[in-house]
Structure formats: C-alpha cells, structure tokens
C-alpha cells in the first residue's frame, strides 16, 4: 500500500503587493506531507514559514500553484466548502492563542462543534472530555483572561481537536510561552498525534520541536531548503539540542 | 443628530475592534452568514434594551419636570397615548440605528480572508 499524502503543495508562490513594491515571499514550494506524521516547518524569521502555513490551512490563497488537502484542490472550493474544510478537517493553533475573550474555556472548545452542527449536550460532553485530556480539569468555567498562557494554549489545543480533524496546524505554538510550558505543549501535541493519528504540522523556530518531529522541512528565502527525516536529524543537530 | 452619529460610531467600533475575533471564528469554520447574523442579533438586543431604557427614563424625567413646574394635577391630564407613541418611536429609531451601524462592517468583516482579519492590529 502506498503511503497516503494528506497535504500536497505544488509550485506555490505568493506575492504581497505593497503598492510600490511587490514582495515574493514564497518562490515555488513543493511539499508532500504523509498522514499521521508530526512535521515541523523550520526557518528563520521572514523566510515564509507562516505564509506557507496559511496557504496549507486555506486561510490565504496562493498567487500561483496549488494546495491539495486530502487530494482536493482547495482553490476550487467555494466559501461554504472552505468553511466546512476548516471546520471538520483542520484544527488551528496560533502563537497568540486567539481564544474568544468573552467565552469560558468550555465555550471556546465547543464553539467549532456548534459550527459543525453538533447538539449542545454532545458538544458540552465532548468539550469536557477534551479539556480533561489537555490537563485542565475543573477550569472549564474560567475565561481566557483568568488562565495562564500555557493554560490558554491548552484550551486552544483542545479547541483545535474539537471536531476530530485530520490535520492540526500549529503556527509557532510555543512562541509566547516559556521553556517548560512550551515543552509541555509540544509533548501534549505529540501524544495526541500518536493517540489519534492526527497529522501535526507546525511552523516554528523552536529547536525543542525537533526532538518530537518525524520530519523537518527547512525553509529558506521562500524555498524548501531541505527535508530531513528524524533519523538524519539527530546527528546533524546534535549540537543544538 | 448627535445621537445618530454616536450610536452608529459605537456599533462600528464594536465590530472593528473584534476583527481578530471574527478571523478566529472563520478559521474555526464559521460561515460568513453566521458571523453577520451574530452581530445583527447583538446589535438588535443592544438597540432594543438601550432605547427602551432611554425612552422610559425620558418619559419619567418629563413627568417629573412637568409635575414640578405645573403641579401634580398636570400628571392627571397627561397625554398617555402621545407619550406611548413617542416611546415607541424612540425605541424603533434607536434599534434601527444600532442595526444600521453594525450591518456594513459586519458584512465587510465576514467577507475578509481570515488571515487579513487576524493581521489587523489590536
């Protein structure tokens, strides 16, 4: 059986038109990501990590080239189908958490389920389960402002998993957290990816991520610099860990 | 006039301040329709509650001032029908203005690409 690719990116370029100046952020990216892998996209600031990440998540449209999620070209989808894709197939985790401030932790987690049309009782039950899983027992009625950064990110992780997506996209999930808390979140993501067979794709420049990644994609100056499997990684980045 | 500008501006702000939130909801798979409906519902409730409280306070203030100026007998002859009509008009105008202020930015925000909405500085 051939290995299934959940994400396929072919020849993607992205230009940002700043009026007088056009910036080519991505200059032709080809990438395939297998189902169930934990993939890190690494690269210096400004290399186009986040832009690529947004393309994969269907949050932005490429200037040229195609992005396939589960072999479906997302440029062909209309607004309704795209919303469905974001709702059911993809879970997002952001650097800045982006929880809804007026809602409690539980409500934040059940929100995507409401969008998916789950009944309220089922959503609450599943939401509590997810919060327990990420280690937030008894904190379900707290607002984001009453939680620490690490706890907020845990809520975001639970929210990303609410509709059992096939892919979890994490854009610098540890960027706003201290070392230990960041490590906790990384381990949590890894555990969940193993448990549920979810593909985790994270854009990061956090070297702690390397330890748990199955595959690392290095981006430099809008192109894929190299793709390393975990086995080759340990030798080459031994000095950094 | 001052009220019109005030109400519309307040509603415009309440949407633009929450662009990021809207972007997040779109990422989570909210439909454009859902977001517009959410804001309209909110504006409707705020408009109703606000204008009802305002109209009642206004009516009470008018009653008190006429009682002070003209003596308590004035209240006996109070034109109840006219008062109710002006309360009703105030409520309708208030709610409509609050809706008007929210509809345009809500549609604008709902149509944005999620990344653009989230890139907006808070």
Low-confidence runs of chain B: none
Average pLDDT reading of chain A: 85
Strand composition percent of chain A: 25-35%
Oligomer: heterodimer
Q: What structural class do you assign from the helix and strand content of chain A? A: alpha/beta
Largest sheet of chain B: none
Residue stretches of chain A low in confidence (pLDDT < 50, at least 5 long) are none
Share of helix of chain B, binned = over 70%
What does this structure look like?
The complex is a heterodimer of chains A (241) and B (122). Chain A contains seven helices and ten strands. Chain A has 241 residues and is an alpha/beta fold. Chain A has a six-stranded mixed sheet, with helices on both faces. The relative contact order of chain A is 0.18. Chain B has 122 residues and is an all-alpha fold. Helices cover 86% and strands 0% of the residues of chain B. Chain B has six helices and no strands. Chain B has helices at residues 2-16, 19-27, 32-70, 73-76, 80-111, 114-119. In chain B, helix 1 packs parallel to helix 5 and helix 3 (32-70) packs antiparallel against helix 5 (80-111). The two termini of chain B are 30 Å apart.
């Amino acid at each position: 059986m051939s290995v299934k690719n959940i994400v396929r990116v072919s020849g993607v370029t992205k230009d940002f038109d700043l009026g007088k100046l056009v910036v080519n952020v991505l200059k032709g990216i080809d990438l395939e990501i297998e189902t169930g892998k934990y993939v890190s996209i690494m690269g210096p600031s400004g290399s186009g990590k986040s832009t690529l990440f947004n393309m994969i998540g269907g949050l932005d449209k490429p200037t040229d080239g195609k992005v396939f999620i589960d072999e479906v070209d997302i440029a062909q989808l209309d607004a309704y189908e795209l919303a469905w894709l974001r709702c059911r197939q993809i879970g997002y985790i952001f650097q800045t958490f982006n929880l809804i401030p007026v809602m409690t932790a539980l409500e934040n987690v059940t929100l995507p389920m409401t969008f998916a049309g789950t009944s309220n009782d089922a959503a609450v039950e599943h939401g509590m389960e997810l919060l327990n899983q990420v280690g937030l027992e008894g904190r379900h009625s707290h607002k984001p402002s009453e939680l620490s950064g690490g706890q907020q990110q845990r809520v975001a992780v639970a929210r990303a998993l609410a509709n059992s997506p096939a892919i979890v996209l994490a854009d610098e999930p540890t960027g706003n957290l201290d070392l230990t808390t960041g490590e906790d979140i990384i381990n949590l993501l890894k555990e969940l990816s193993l448990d549920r067979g979810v593909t985790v794709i994270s854009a990061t420049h956090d070297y702690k991520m390397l330890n748990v990644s199955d595959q690392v994609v290095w981006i430099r100056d809008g192109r894929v610099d190299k793709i390393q499997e975990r086995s080759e990684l340990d030798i080459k980045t031994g000095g950094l860990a | 006039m001052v009220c019109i500008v005030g109400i519309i501006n307040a509603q415009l702000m309440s949407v633009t301040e929450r662009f990021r939130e809207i972007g997040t909801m779109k990422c989570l798979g909210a439909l454009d329709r859902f977001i517009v409906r959410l804001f309209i519902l909110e504006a409707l409730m705020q408009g109703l509650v606000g204008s009802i409280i305002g109209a009642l306070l206004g009516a009470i203030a008018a009653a008190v001032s006429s009682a002070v100026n003209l003596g308590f007998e004035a209240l006996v002859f109070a034109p109840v029908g006219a008062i109710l009509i002006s309360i009703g008009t105030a409520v309708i105008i208030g709610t409509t203005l609050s809706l008007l202020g929210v509809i345009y930015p809500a549609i604008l925000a709902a149509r944005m690409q999620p990344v653009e909405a989230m890139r907006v500085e808070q």
